[in-house]
Structures are given as C-alpha cells and as structure tokens.
Please model this.
Amino acid sequence: MKLSTRGRYGLRAMCYLASNKNKGYISVSEISDKLNLSENYLEQLIRLLKNEGLIKSQRGPKGGYMITKDLKDISVGEVLRALEGNITMSECVSGSYDCYNKCDAYSVFNRIDQVINDAVDSITLENIINQEV
Model:
C-alpha cells in the first residue's frame, strides 16, 4: 500500500494548520508557500478536508482555513480517509467488492488492514505536533 500525493500533501497541510492553530485562519497561499505545494492542488485537498468537517473556512482579507476540533481529537486515519477513502490493501477486505470465495490470503489481508488502520487511528495531530510519534 502506498499513499498518494493526495494523502501525503493533505496530511502535511493539516500538520501545518495544526502547528499554526493559534494564528487563526491561514490562507491556502501561505500553506502552499510554506510547504512548497501547488496552490491549485492544495485547494482541492482543502475542499475534501472541509467537506469532512476537519477544517472550516472564513472569507475576506483575514480569511483562510482553520482546524475545527482539538488536535487530540483528529487522528491521522481520519485525515487520510477524508483524502484517500478507505485505507485498505485489498478491495475484498474493504467490503467494496463482493468476495464470494474468500481465498487463503483473505485473513492475511484483513489482519494487515487492521494493523494499518489501528496504527493511523492511534496517531493524532497533537502527537505529531508534539513529536510524540
């Protein structure tokens, strides 16, 4: 399993917002400049995060984006699922595919998915900002 740029860049943007939470609303252009990411691509990712209620926006000269919850209440898993969808290595385990004949490897795929999901769900933005990972 490999994270796409969507997951990597989106998590980086969330970490930037988290580490600057006390500044208030932060513009996409500032995030783009500081992280050296495409502003247009970042806007797409921000939209996904906003749709999931992880960030909120404000218009105007002092507008931008801000994290909506306490940092200890936002897991890496939540952020990645908002950007990537289900975190899985096999469609049969995720439930998005009907697996009538569960092969011998099904239990292995299921166990790997559980371990990965448990790991990303156990890490919060607060852990990342406090370098407790």
